[in-house]
Design a protein that fits this description.
With about 180 residues, this protein is mostly helical. It has two domains: about 80 residues; about 90 residues, Arc Repressor Mutant, subunit A. Helices cover about 70% and strands about 0% of the residues. The C terminus is likely disordered.
């Protein structure tokens, strides 16, 4: 029985697992199980069929053990070895983003009323300068000054968020002459 089916069973296992050493191990384990059944005085009517069926069971067992080891290895890794989540979803990033948004909102709120209105129409409503001038009843030059002042306020806020202090030219209250409120 050993010599007659060995090469045939080895070739079968080799086609399945594509690794000569693993195939040889499977064949050896299959023969050991069948021999154990023979020694237990079990009647074996078709030894070839039993060897093939046993080899299939051994392959399934090895595959399951490999999957279990892989699963256990993944759980064995500590949290620092796990890949980090997206940076924008980290609690510190969320807090920092919320604080930055509040700072920008405060900077825009601190602008004079007409300046804030022109800036918000341009930035949030995507309105062109000419349309803003017409809507607000002011000159195109004044719209340009209002929007420049709003941008300077946001830039100063950005510099403060980064830990720097805006220069006098970057502060909205000193960069442009004060505009009259109608």
């Amino acid at each position: 029985m050993f010599v007659h089916y060995y090469r045939e069973l080895l070739n079968f296992c080799l086609r399945q697992v594509r690794d000569r050493d693993a195939a040889a191990d499977i064949v050896q384990e299959s023969y050991a199980r069948v021999l154990a059944m023979e020694q237990a005085r079990a009647a074996i009517a078709e030894p070839r069929a039993l060897l093939y069926q046993t080899a299939r069971h051994v392959m399934v067992d090895q595959y399951r053990r490999a999957q279990l080891r892989t699963h256990e290895d993944l759980h064995a890794l500590d949290e620092t070895a796990q890949p980090p989540g997206p940076a924008h979803e980290e609690p510190d990033a969320l807090l920092s983003s919320a604080q930055a948004m509040a700072a920008y909102a405060s900077a825009i709120e601190a602008l004079p009323l007409r300046c804030r209105e022109a800036f918000m129409l341009h930035v949030f409503d995507d309105m062109p300068y000419a349309q803003i001038a017409q809507r607000m009843g002011i000159s195109l030059s004044m719209v340009e000054k209002h929007i420049a002042r709003g941008r300077l306020a946001c830039r100063a806020c950005e510099l403060l968020q980064q830990g720097g202090a805006p220069s006098a030219a970057q502060r909205p209250d000193t960069a442009l002459p004060a505009t009259r409120q109608p």
